[in-house]
């Protein structure tokens, strides 16, 4: 294709936009007036219809996830027809792990193509580099059929309006029932896919699986005579950490200061709180300095590994796995990962702490962020919208189905072996299956760990304990242009200061002026936009 | 009675006394250790057992036992092996092409009486001062039909303005008498270039070749942007994803205890990416110093 003067200049202008605003593109489109909260609220969201063929051992509810003690025998083959149309389908995504073997050297990928009835061409990038790759592909007018759009992508409404298919006709209300596994995704997750008064994507739900609380090594605590720890306030929590610290033996209670947990103890908002139409950020909420002071106190008390401020996430995980630290703050997904990485043998046991109030009573746990990403379909795709939705539907087949077993574990013999009805991944399985299918669409996470029924039991128990007290982010589903454009920069400033305070390099008294600065350099504007969006949608 | 101490002279300078020599030795030892210990740590961690890596918090200096699981994991599935071939191809072919094109351009620019020399030199200098940016370059690559082609890793970066300037400076300083005598003997421009100028330019060719080779070997960003098929990814991009993602190799939802820990994988990656350059560098080092000086003092 020759480069015309127009394309070249267009690219140059897009590049200039990136340089000047940090915004990849489509700034013009983003100002579209149709992305008003009122218009978005008027969209009829897809009907939720729970897929009933699979019965969990421990049923969940709106917040709590279904738990399975073993993989169901004879998994249901829920989709009989191949969803593809015989033509190659392209997809761009980030991948969280290592690069898997390419399709011609990857039997799992080949089997996926066979089952889909279309060759899936996947363009991958690591998590960090994905925004650059996506922005370049968008600016180059070179988007694939299926696009993984992370929630942090700037100016999503403009991008989707310019480049993505409107799926409202196919998915709104009962329309979604034609795609039973998309209908199996609870309605709340679809709220994050509505822009410009239309449904522009399919959600990749997370929610409770991303709820983040202290994970602890139950085996290490038991060795010290501590069973089922349940501190009643911050002082007891700190005492517990002190009991698990033996600096001379290179043992520390914590991998990092558990600031989000302390904030939950104090009852700070989960990102944004709404009260009578007024929005408050957790940065400015009453008690935010107290939380920082408590976190700083923990570091000062020496219960946090002193290398924490220079360590990467993988190093912290090694401390926890190696018994150098007994506590880490992370999600239910990480809980499973710890079992995957366990080198401590059969005694290895992980559990999660509930949230007490800072001075007693009950704390307020934060619900995890709703979406991993929104999956959009390119307007320029040669495939019909039905084909692409059928692909997404296939990818959302839930735990217990034959499709799920194949999608997550691959082919029996090569990618996993069966232990009873439980699939145990082989090394080849782990390497070959990581091609990013979960970012096309996904069902809600099921609590399950092959061969260890006590793990989902413990996970289900803690979820039931905290479910009634969960605090949700009031800004979810409301669009703020400033948050989209400047959110990452503003958040980084505050996170940097948090770290400085935690490490003792700056006093807690620096927090209040920083919050003022945050408000004046964008926070106040974000609040205004969220409030405006909330007012426009309230009662709808 | 005073006793004079005769000190042995080294290069005309008296050799320092024992205390000073021990002190200097200790200082040198500290510097050597600062370089060697991390290197040993990298190699040791890459072959240490999982349990020891976890218990030590990430870095092992003396492994309890040696295993090559990290290397096996990296080479299993063929991703790293394939990427290694791509990188070698890009580095070798790219360097040869770059040297050829750059030398031809620089020689032309160095010739007196080449009327278009100055405007072309300005264009070359312009590209050094003003980068076109990611998206316009992407559009050019796309327009040239190079997307998803291994040539996208070579063609867009084939000529480096800096290297052309260094080569030009070198060629300008070759004595005119040599080229003139070749011409008198009946050699044309190409023959003079190939048989007279090139053999005289081995030092500068070595250093510019090394510059190009290292740049091609280390390049990853163009592959990230231009190549969708991961089969064509060079080693640096594949290894970078292991390091950057900073997550365990296993899938969180599935889990397995079969794969080595991330630290071990990362250290194995460092070893794999360092070895080829370590193998080549000693042979080019003497040319390297000479070539750099060539560019620095002439022009």
UniProtKB/TrEMBL annotation, chain A:
GO terms for cellular component: cell envelope. InterPro entries: Bact_solute-bd_prot1, SBP, TAT_signal. This is Putative aldouronate transport system substrate-binding protein. It comes from the Bacteria. Belongs to the bacterial solute-binding protein 1 family. Its main location: other. It holds the Pfam family SBP_bac_8. Coiled coil: none annotated. It comes from Kribbella caucasensis. Residues 1-27 form the signal peptide. PROSITE patterns: PROKAR_LIPOPROTEIN, TAT. Keywords: Signal, Transport. It is found in: Cell envelope.
Automatic annotation (TrEMBL), chain B:
It is found in: Cell membrane. GO terms for biological process: transmembrane transport. Gene3D superfamilies: MetI-like. Keywords: Cell membrane, Membrane, Sugar transport, Transmembrane, Transmembrane helix, Transport. Residues 84-280 form the ABC transmembrane type-1 domain. It is a multi-pass membrane protein. This is Multiple sugar transport system permease protein/putative aldouronate transport system permease protein. It comes from Kribbella caucasensis. The lineage of its organism: Bacteria, Bacillati, Actinomycetota, Actinomycetes, Propionibacteriales.
